[in-house]
Write a structure and sequence with these properties.
This protein is mainly alpha-helical. It folds into 2 domains: 89 residues, no CATH class; 126 residues, no CATH class. The chain is 69% helix and 0% strand. It is built from 9 helices and no strands. Helix 7 packs across helix 9. It starts with a helix and ends with a helix. The model has no long low-confidence stretch (mean pLDDT 86).
Length: 248
């Protein structure tokens, strides 16, 4: 079953790349054939096998030999690994709806993260879909009041940072993403997720400073850090809280 879940994740990873590259371009996400961006040659079915086609073709277009971006296999593999990680990390009994919603939620966070890295913006269509899935999880989990308060609190915090900095520290899309994460995780896991996101972001910033790649005008999208923090809290948040309390 784990192998099936992983390969299903690879397939969704391929669709994730389609969304990342075509969303808001006017191109259909479903009804347009995949093609090479350099020579516009239509890709055959054997060129669309997730990860495997990239490796067999050695990262080049079969027709024009142009280099294929590493984003394609990286996102596909990340999606497959994400599906597998959520599946095998679910040690407590969970119904199929909760598992499906959790997988869909974090898959969309992956899409948003890569889109944010590539385009430096979080599209409303994706973030609203994540919020909708978070609300659906409330119906399944029956924790409406507590999770709503967590979501509103996180949204208010990030919206305040956006307002005070006039969009320099945070984008408003980050606030909407925090709303979804707060609703989905609830308290106190949402707090763990935010703290982890800031820690990872700070560590990444230090690496950029060390490499002399960070300056005042450098725009570092925060969406990926929020996503990493949320996934960490979902998978290991309770253990992190227990570890912290053991230190007190």
């Amino acid at each position: 079953m784990a192998i099936v879940i992983f390969f299903l994740g690879l397939i969704f990873g391929s669709f994730a790349n389609v969304i990342i590259l075509r969303l808001n371009t006017g191109e259909s996400l479903i009804f347009k054939d995949s093609r090479c961006f350099f020579c516009s040659q239509k890709l055959q079915w054997f060129e669309l096998i997730p990860v495997a086609s990239f490796l067999v073709l050695r990262g080049r277009c079969r027709s024009c030999k142009s280099r294929i971006s590493w984003q394609y296999p990286a996102v596909e593999f990340a999606s497959g690994f994400l599906f597998l990680l959520i599946y095998v990390s679910t040690t407590t009994p969970i119904n199929i709806w909760s598992l499906g919603l959790a997988t869909a939620f974090f898959w969309l966070l992956l899409v948003i993260s890569v889109y944010d890295i590539r385009h430096k913006i979080i599209p409303n269509s994706l973030v609203y879909l994540v919020v909708a899935i978070a609300f659906l999880s409330l119906i399944v989990g029956q924790q409406l009041a507590q999770n709503l308060i967590s979501g509103i609190a996180l949204f208010s915090f990030f919206a305040f940072l956006w307002w005070v900095s006039k969009g320099q520290w945070m984008g408003f899309g980050d606030a909407k993403l925090a709303l979804a994460i707060g609703i989905f995780l609830g308290w106190p896991l949402s707090l763990v997720g935010v703290l982890v996101s800031f820690w990872v972001g700070a560590l990444f910033g230090l690496v950029l400073i060390f490499l002399r790649r960070l300056h005042l005008k450098t725009h570092v999208p925060f969406g990926p850090f929020l996503s990493i923090g949320a996934l960490t809290a979902f998978l290991w948040g309770e253990r992190i809280i227990e570890w912290y309390l053991s230190l007190l």
